[in-house]
Design goal:
Blueprint lengths: L9 H9 L13 E5 L7 E5 H11 L4 H13 L9 E3 L5
Parallel strand pairs: 2-3
Antiparallel strand pairs: 1-2
Helix pairs in contact: 2-3
C-alpha cells in the first residue's frame, strides 16, 4: 500500500514552477515564512528555525536538543549552491 503524501500548498507549487531549481526542504512546508531575493540571484525560501524544531519534536518524537543538532548538521549547515534556502531565527519566541 502506498503511503499518502500531503500535497504542497498552492502558492509553493506556483513558486516552484516559476523556479524549478528552487530547493524545498521536504517535510517543513509549515516552517516557510517567506522568500528572499538578492541582487542578480534567484529567489530562495526562508524557513523559521524554531518552527522546524517544533515539527521534528512533534512529528519525529525528537527532543529539542536532538532536533537542533539534526537541523544544524543536515539542513542549516548544508550549502547546496545559490538556491540553498535561508534559515531565520526569531528574536522573540
Amino acid at each position: 500500500m502506498k503511503k499518502k503524501t500531503k500535497e504542497r500548498p498552492y502558492w509553493l507549487q506556483e513558486l516552484a514552477e516559476g523556479n524549478p531549481d528552487m530547493i524545498v526542504w521536504d517535510g517543513f512546508d509549515n516552517a516557510i515564512v517567506g522568500t528572499a531575493t538578492r541582487c542578480g540571484m534567484e529567489t530562495v525560501l526562508i524557513y523559521n528555525f524554531e518552527k522546524m524544531v517544533k515539527i521534528l519534536v512533534k512529528r519525529d518524537k525528537m527532543d529539542r536538543e536532538m532536533a537542533v543538532e539534526y537541523l544544524e548538521f543536515n539542513l542549516v549547515g548544508c550549502y547546496a549552491g545559490e538556491l540553498t534556502p535561508m534559515t531565520m531565527y526569531p528574536l522573540v519566541k
